[in-house]
């Protein structure tokens, strides 16, 4: 069997796990969820990582017998739709999911795609109320999605970019040696939002810090970041702030290391997908990452949660676990149970008051804008085995020591959503 064939069998097996409860208790028809994500192309690794997280969360729900409904206990089933990292393909995959009888779609690894899906779902649900769709977003963090573009049918389970920036600023405010900061990001809505908020918060909280350079680059198309890294080094910046993710982050930090840049990286996603291994020892004490949760959050419940994921996915390259994705599935299961079934309108109304806890982390949906409220953690890269770093990332030998934790109330921010609800 070829490598490609083996991968196909693994994916099919995981999908079937979503349909088959381990204890055989669920009796009803599967509740189908549609994952619309980049499963091929330059960001395929991010899509596959999301799939593993969601599949594992679904296994947990099905292992306890599925979701109780008025028709009996029903298992969850995850189906894959490859958008190839493109907005237009995302819309095509939405149509395919709807045609397949799916009422719950999940997407996150592109705010541009998320914005297009919100618009398309709004129009579809008004036009075809019998086939309504609820959109669960685990990673698209452009603040506009729960502000000006907020929708009754869209629920975001990740902290948006402004919330993450506020958490990073907790460390930037305390960095007394910082005089010059370089801003770099991907040239699309999320990248623009990160740089815009970075400039606003720097001006407010660290007006003494000069912006040494500001750069936007095409998303997913740059193979050689050496010219960008050279600009960063030559700018005299002591630190870089970036919202880059996937290969755009990994290649950037590799290039910075190669040209001898010795400053800090303040990142949204520097804690996974090859970045720690690419940075190596040069990142110790210098690479900062913010997340809803990090493996080294210092609690026994957190450690047990992370260990259980590593037991399920033991390969180092599969080490990409996000607690918010687990909470998303728990919140959906809770909402379906409260609604007594899968009617999208009833489930959406129940999701507005979702309140779930897993591994000691509690998250609650804010009904006013459908922005999930949860704690945030900020970590600094260090060698595994040093104090506060019992776990490394992707077998790299490097992990993130948690240096700041913000409660849900501290991480929350005002919104400008004017929610329009059906009826």
Automatic annotation (TrEMBL):
Transmembrane segments: none annotated. Keywords: Signal. The keyword Cytoplasm does not apply. This is Branched-chain amino acid ABC transporter substrate-binding protein. Residues 1-26 form the signal peptide. The keyword Signal applies. Residues 30-385 form the Leucine-binding protein domain. Belongs to the leucine-binding protein family. CDD domains: PBP1_SBP-like (cd06329). InterPro entries: BCAA_transport (IPR051010), Leu-bd (IPR028081), Peripla_BP_I (IPR028082). It comes from the Bacteria.
């Amino acid at each position: 069997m070829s490598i490609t064939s083996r991968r196909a069998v693994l994916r099919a097996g995981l999908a079937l796990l979503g349909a088959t409860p381990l204890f055989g208790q669920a009796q009803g028809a599967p509740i189908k969820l549609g994952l619309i994500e980049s499963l091929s192309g330059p960001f395929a690794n991010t899509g596959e990582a999301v799939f593993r997280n969601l599949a594992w969360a679904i296994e947990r729900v099905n292992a306890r017998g599925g979701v109780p409904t008025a028709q009996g206990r029903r298992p969850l089933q995850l189906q894959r739709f490859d958008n190839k990292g493109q907005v237009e393909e995302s819309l095509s995959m939405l149509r395919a999911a709807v045609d397949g009888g799916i009422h719950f779609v999940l997407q996150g690894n592109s705010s541009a795609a998320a914005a297009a899906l919100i618009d398309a779902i709004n129009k579809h649900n008004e036009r075809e109320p019998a086939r309504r769709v609820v959109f669960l977003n685990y990673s698209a963090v452009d603040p506009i999605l729960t502000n000006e573009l907020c929708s009754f049918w869209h629920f975001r389970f990740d902290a948006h970019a402004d919330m993450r920036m506020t958490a990073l600023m907790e460390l930037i405010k305390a960095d007394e040696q910082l005089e010059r900061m370089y801003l770099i990001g991907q040239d699309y809505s999320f990248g623009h939002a990160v740089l815009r908020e970075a400039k606003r918060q720097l001006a407010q909280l660290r007006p003494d810090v000069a912006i040494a350079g500001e750069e936007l680059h095409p998303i997913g198309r740059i193979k050689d970041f050496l010219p960008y890294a050279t600009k960063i080094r030559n700018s005299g910046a002591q630190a870089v702030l970036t919202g880059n993710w996937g290969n755009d982050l990994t290649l950037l930090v590799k290039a910075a290391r190669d040209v001898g840049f010795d400053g800090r990286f303040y990142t949204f996603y520097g804690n996974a997908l090859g970045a720690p291994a690419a940075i190596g020892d040069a990142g110790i004490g210098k690479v900062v990452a913010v997340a809803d949760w990090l493996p080294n959050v210092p609690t026994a419940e957190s450690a047990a949660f992370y260990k259980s994921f590593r037991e399920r996915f033991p390969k180092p390259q599969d080490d990409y676990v996000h607690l918010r994705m687990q909470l998303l599935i728990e919140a959906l299961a809770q909402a379906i149970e409260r609604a007594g079934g899968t009617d999208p309108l009833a489930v959406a109304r129940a999701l507005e008051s979702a309140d779930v806890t897993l591994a000691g982390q509690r998250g609650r949906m804010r009904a006013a804008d459908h922005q999930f409220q949860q704690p945030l953690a900020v970590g600094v890269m260090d060698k595994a085995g040093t104090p506060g770093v019992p776990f490394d990332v992707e077998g790299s030998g490097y992990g993130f020591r948690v240096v700041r934790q913000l409660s849900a109330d501290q991480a929350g921010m005002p919104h400008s959503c004017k929610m329009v609800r059906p009826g």
